[in-house]
Amino acid sequence: MAHDDDHGDHDNGHGSELSEMQLRVRALETVLAEKGYIDPAALDVMIEAYETRIGPHNGARVVAKAWTDPAFKRALLEDATKAVQSLGLINRVGDHLIAVENTPKLHNMIVCTLCSCYPWEVLGLPPVWYKSAPYRSRAVNDPRGVLADFGLRLPADTQIRVWDSTAETRFMVLPMRPAGTDGWSEERLAVLVTRDSMVGTGLPKNPAGAA
């Protein structure tokens, strides 16, 4: 489900609740570990895998290839699930992945209003703010305000479209390729792709500052 927005900027914050949530998660992990329900070492291995071998790195590969390969870009926008599988990425969470493309006049943003549905294999572990109630509610009702909170202020004539993930359907944003990257390799371009740019709460890195 997509939601379009034409509202103005707002200055509401969304950070105070997040640190409390992190503390609650850590407390729960401690209790479960003490009772023997989870193995902290195994949990660390899982987290390390999603942070270093699964997730944003995979999504960055997908975006970089779409930026350099028009045929792959068409395939990605037509059927993202099939396209990412062609790169050896298997989506085990949810049945269908949809890629939505940013343009100079359209900015896409992803949320899960009911819980925290998220394409883990492509974007990695969902950030705490993605699962928070303020983000889940305000992303639909005040997307410009949320983007402003993230430091992203778009031109007034840029349409914002919010996509609501479900257990069956997940989304990823295909951000615009930064100017000044002509001739760059996929590997070099992938360094510019951030997790937030694939969620829609940020943009790719400035190529001028990339090594």
Structure description:
The chain is an alpha/beta fold and 211 residues long. The chain has a single domain (2-209), classed as Nitrile hydratase alpha /Thiocyanate hydrolase gamma (Nitrile Hydratase, Chain A, Alpha-Beta Complex). The protein contains eleven helices and five strands, in the order E-H-H-H-H-H-E-E-H-H-H-H-E-E-H-H. The chain has a three-stranded mixed sheet, covered by helices on one side. The chain has a two-stranded parallel ribbon with strand order 2-5. Helix 3 (56-68) crosses helix 4 (70-78) and helix 8 (133-141) crosses helix 9 (143-149). It is globular, with a radius of gyration of 18 Å. The model is unreliable at 6-18 (pLDDT under 50).
Brief overview:
With 211 residues, the protein is of the alpha/beta class. It has a single domain (2-209), classed as Nitrile hydratase alpha /Thiocyanate hydrolase gamma (Nitrile Hydratase, Chain A). Helix content is 45%, strand content 13%.
Shape: globular
Oligomer: single chain
CATH class: Alpha Beta
Could you say how many structural domains there are in total?
1
Low-confidence stretches: 6-18
Q: Could you tell me how far the N terminus lies from the C terminus, measured between alpha carbons in angstroms? A: 38 Å
How would you state the average pLDDT, rounded? 83
Percent of residues in helices: 40-55%
Rg from alpha-carbon coordinates = 18 Å
Largest sheet properties: 3 strands, mixed
Residues in β-strands, percent: 5-15%
- The number of distinct helices, counting runs of at least 4 residues, comes to 11
What's the CATH architecture? Alpha-Beta Complex
Query: Can you identify the CATH superfamily?
Result: Nitrile hydratase alpha /Thiocyanate hydrolase gamma
User: From N to C, what is the helix and strand string?
Assistant: EHHHHHEEHHHHEEHH
Could you tell me the number of beta strands? 5
Give the helix/strand class.
alpha/beta
What CATH calls the topology is Nitrile Hydratase, Chain A
Q: Strand order of the main beta sheet, please?
A: 1-4-3
